[in-house]
Amino acid sequence: MKSTAYQEQNPGVHSQIVSDRQAIGQIVEPKPTAVTPPAKRMGGQWLGRISGVVFTVLCFWSVPAEVVQANQVQNRELQIGVVQRFGSKPGDKLILKAVEGDRLYVRFEGGDGTPQTQEVNELQLEIIMKPLAEPMLEERLVLSTHRSFENAEQNAEEWRNKGIEVEIAHPGRWQVWAKREVYGTPLLRRFLLQNLQAEGYETAFLDTEIVQNKPQPSWVFEGFRYNRDRLEIWAGTNRIQVSREKEDRNPTLYPGNLRIQPNAYGSFTLVNEVPIEEYLRGVVPHEIGAEAPYPAVEAQAIIARTYVLRNLRRFAIDNYELCANTECQVYKGVGETWDRSDRAIAATAGKVLTYNNELIDALYSSTTGGITAPFQDMWDGADRPYLTAVLDSVGNVWDLSRYSLANEQNFRRFITLDKGFNEEGWDVFRWREVSSLAQMNKDLKSYLQEKQHPQANFQTIQAVEVVERSNAGRAIAVNVTTDQGSIKLVKDEILRAFWAPLSTFFYLERMYGDDKSFKGYVFVGGGFGHGVGLSQSGSHRLAKLGWTSDRILQFYYPGTEIQPISEEIIFWRDPLATPDRG
Q1: For the segment 127-138, what is each residue's pLDDT rounded down to a tens digit?
Q2: Mind giving me the DSSP string for 237-280?
Q3: How many Å apart are CA 388 and CA 377, to the nearest integer?
């Protein structure tokens, strides 16, 4: 998510276990070590039913009962992908260090299939490209590409409703793939693609690559080089420093354990195994800002905890749960923590935000621009009754019931207002972003080429127009006219096609040069991010006005309730898990 802290720190920022080991000069087996690794709690997926609705909980161990007990999930161990796609570049490196006075332990499978452990101060992982005995076809049938997980998941449900088994992937953008286990041969994939194209589906395409080399993590220990696809790394103090370069003066300090594992894209993921309350120490201050008023920090702690527990399924294809960047929540380990956020996390321990006894979709953004966006203003899918249009003000600055922002004149008048809002004074509350025609052409071409759109080879944009707005003012549909025809951009795809706007809360001004020629557009708008749910900058002001965290959350998520995690709460509803189908 685009956080307040992220926005402040990044102004304008709109990345088979191989058993052979080659020694330098000879091949040997690793020496046994007297180190006994700490007991590892192996996570497994457990499917339970509450009130007849299937939900997913990943916990420390298998639970024989039909209900997950509260004390088994309150501080469960998360699987966070802190370095994604390691090895996608041949020169990739990772340097892992123990803190002063401690040691690292590295466990992997030896050539004879038995676990081996090494004890080191520092582990330098690099990528080597191992030639394959013969070229290998790597191919997937991409059914659709999306800017957000929310739209990818909704689209996946639509494909499943058509009888096509799918999986959600993130090779750099969110994609929906025909499930590889089901469509496992080139013939099956092409048969499905031809049928989809015959039915008029234009978003599907084959992503094909002939692979001649396979990347492998590699390291040197006692003069011998080791190559393995899977590693487990831990330290006595449960603290490990990670950096990408040897000279990195600000390594990230991760609590818990780490592991290297393959992903679905031919590269690897560094996964941090960390208890949820410790994880929040690396999230809350970096999302809300270290100097945020205390009630705003408490509110952030509750929704960050709610968000992670509802979204554990995001990276199921890669065998971990969440990422560590703005695609999920910003997580920076525990190298920089603050007493205020630590106190807020402890004070709210185990508390989550619910609606009708279900974890809410706890979305939040840096700045809304003066009014929060309903869920369906940004994404497809079922409505969320608690994610509605909320005027981000404690005063009567605008009457939305009388002056809908779906009206272009009303919207433009609203954008001229800059006083009386909770976000007043923030740099991105109101903005003007200039984008040249050349830049817009480049942005749109990149977007269309990534989707393998039939108009990807257009020459130039001729016009861009907002053709539909929501009652809350968000651009729902933008029509782009090029020399090859028209392209309709919808909801958050607008932000993927054009980089200039900071949100979909904008209108357009056409630019002309001295010679009266068309030069591009000015995007005039407000807010930073999707604008759905809590405004982090707005919560700062409400906290300064004396509002409690409970009141702040009720303001941004009307009808919700703060509860301790319990066996009565539904974590997430699978839309297809109905009594008839589930």
Answers
A1: 999 999 999 999
A2: TSEEEEESSTT-SS-EEEESEEEEEE-TTSSEEEEEEEEHHHHH
A3: 10
